[in-house]
Amino acid sequence: MKSTNDQLSAVFAALADPTRRAILARLSEGDAPVGELARPFDISAPAISKHLRVLADAGLIGREISARWRICHLRADVLHEAHNWLEMYRRHWESNLDNLVEFVENAHTTDATTSVNTTET
């Protein structure tokens, strides 16, 4: 079993490719055979197989054989782990931006108060 950091590295590496993101987007609509996943792309069958292997190795998709069809399905739980990791940083930056807004608003209020006091004297 991969550690969480290794899993996240594999997930983000898999998500770095637009073809793989498009495959995941299609699988978010439901399971699909490999042929259907390959149809929108102008690449070879071995290239599609490689993309699917990268997604499977990252844990983002599952594959099964049903009769003569190779069916792929999305494994959203792995995406949830990546989302949680990103969420931690979103909260961090949101907090920093809130602090910046508060600082700017306080500075603006202080400048306005100082400006009023100097014009009254």
UniProtKB/TrEMBL annotation:
Pfam families: HTH_20. Signal peptide: none annotated. One of its GO terms (molecular function) is DNA-binding transcription factor activity. Residues 1-94 form the HTH arsR-type domain. It comes from Pseudomonas fluorescens. This is ArsR family transcriptional regulator.
